[in-house]
Specification:
homodimer, about 425 residues, alpha+beta, Alpha-Beta Plaits, 2 domains, nine-stranded mixed beta sheet, 11 helices, globular
Chain lengths: ~425, ~425
Amino acid sequence: MATTSMTGQTTGEAIAQRIDQLASISESATGLTRLFLSAEHRNAAELLLTWMREAGMSARTDAIGNVIGRYEGAKPDQPALLLGSHFDTVRNAGKWDGPLGIITAIACVAELNRQHKRLPFAVEVIGFADEEGVRFASTLLGSRALAGTFDESALAGRDSDGVSLREALTGFGLDPQNIGTAARAPSDYLAYLELHIEQGPVLEAEGVPVGVVTAISGATRLAVTLEGMAGHAGTVPMAMRRDALSGVAECIVAIEKQCRDDPGLFGTVGTIRVEPGASNVIPGRCTFSIDMRSASDEHRQFAVKAAIGSIERIAGRRRLVPRIEIKHEGRTTPCAPWLQAQISAAIARRGYRATALPSGAGHDGMAVADLTDIGMIFVRCRGGVSHHPDEHVTLEDAAAGASVLLDVIEQFQPKTAAS
Amino acid sequence: MATTSMTGQTTGEAIAQRIDQLASISESATGLTRLFLSAEHRNAAELLLTWMREAGMSARTDAIGNVIGRYEGAKPDQPALLLGSHFDTVRNAGKWDGPLGIITAIACVAELNRQHKRLPFAVEVIGFADEEGVRFASTLLGSRALAGTFDESALAGRDSDGVSLREALTGFGLDPQNIGTAARAPSDYLAYLELHIEQGPVLEAEGVPVGVVTAISGATRLAVTLEGMAGHAGTVPMAMRRDALSGVAECIVAIEKQCRDDPGLFGTVGTIRVEPGASNVIPGRCTFSIDMRSASDEHRQFAVKAAIGSIERIAGRRRLVPRIEIKHEGRTTPCAPWLQAQISAAIARRGYRATALPSGAGHDGMAVADLTDIGMIFVRCRGGVSHHPDEHVTLEDAAAGASVLLDVIEQFQPKTAAS
């Protein structure tokens, strides 16, 4: 089958125009904030439904508020290749994170439709309603409902105004009893492909517009406290101190070195709090967070153990008492190797060097993986900046992403026993 | 002249009883808080005046609210040996910090008076009204007034209720115009001797009840900010990060090592703040304080320069931008060698090993040194704990301090050209 061309200025401009149009649907006049089950959710969904129908799809909203369009294959009722991303945002968001994947998928279907091309399988495009989880502090509600893993206990969760998810669904015109009907069967799908901005600096550093994702990295988050002894900054000799912050500083340096020396490991200390917290008082207690990620669960778990060992050794040598809690343990979601192979081949066919990289950020694929195999295409974003109004993708890179996605779709081969 | 004995259980108990009596004058029912120009200031001053008069002194309050008692020498109107400490406290204070020096001095004069003993010089006992500086965020107001170095601009300072120092003085029945009359002439005094708890763990570690202070250490306080680049904890590879907190951690470890390797140097990082401060975000900015002290100004200033050099090197290597501000520079106040010698001799006569140590904490002597030579006697406190309800001195150590102070007074030799 011949590959349809979607590169070039026109495609990039068309995508960027829709990105701007969707970004204008925000709860605030300046800055982009679009939360789950809000008026903006409804307006954005309407716009996506319109674009899906213009692209030749039948389109509907499901029981959790996801938007789903379907482009039938050469024969009706075939299993579908599922494409998409999410259209909710963080507060004061960038406009590309999520929408790029939906808009690009719609553009690809529109191109097939323009050519009256039908494939041996159906194509569905989904806009997930809640990936960021800002409103109810519970992520992936849209994709979990699709995968049939929605946890009913989430219905009792409340937003910052005290509105429960159950109430918000009802207010939106949805029936909380019906969420189960959003669940799809594995036999409905051949695979899930998501195109998304990288949200990191790797592709930019590599000088390529797109990359193939190997896995969505699992993460372990720890809360660590070292307990020492507060004292007067002017009267306790250095050798007699049990300074909690100095101990933590040594831990932070050790964790950084461990992660630098171990390729594929990401370790971050993002918060720190010291008590009593006065310039003339030796810190008696210091609490900090550790976020550790890797594309391999075994690797990450081994590294977490090593980091805990380092902390315990440092604390012991300094007569500090450590308290180490694992606050969160999220497993790695691999991207299916057979999908990685097809994405890499498409990238190469479009003339780019296929760069493989893990996703350190979470995505709807983590939930969809319970339903069908997943693959992801990353598009370069400027400076690796995301979750910020400065988030930016060039027209050329948006077009490159679209051309690769369309190529993958047109050349798509369902999984076989051999693949 | 024979030395009067003040050792033993009785003296310790008498001192501790007065410590408790003074500690009962607090603005809060539980915990001890006694601020400058408060009702508790007035009540404590009244009690001190009573004790001074019972000890055979004439006693009065001066223009800033200090309490001063005078015990004439064998001939009237001789220059005086000035003894004392402060009777204001921090919030939720210990009961020994300050009062021990006043109560012990009164006890020594009472003992001289009991024996009808007159010395070749007068003895004055002073209770300074504001050493801690809690109420108006300006320390040593009482001793500065005595030394004639009170800064009139402090009158405009306001407490947390918005009351100015000027208003508080008037409300207390004092005239802000008259503060100058609290100033004394250098010819009024032979020396100033202050007995105070150590507020540190050195005497306890040395196993001695008292020590002689070499100097009140100067201090430099710095505010340091390292500016890096925030980023997603899961997407920015370790080698591409400009993590402000990791840089600060390396600085803290370096400063601690520098101070450990340099005897007499005290360095403390007591506060740290990180931005944005989320467990899944690489810190883009980190601010911390440094408090550096030494009994030698040259030593401290050299060490501060070296620490700044370390910070700049670490920041440069990590592509972080440092901003380093000196927020406070307080010079060292030496204790007069001739007074140190007389205190050491008295300690030895009372049967203790004379241990010399600097004071890392500030004291009224820093201001009084502008008026006359100063000397300090430190008394051991349990665990080095101070500014805390757990602050504690044993009856034996309180008595040991009193016996040493009385010995110094009785054997006191004014400064000569040779001393």
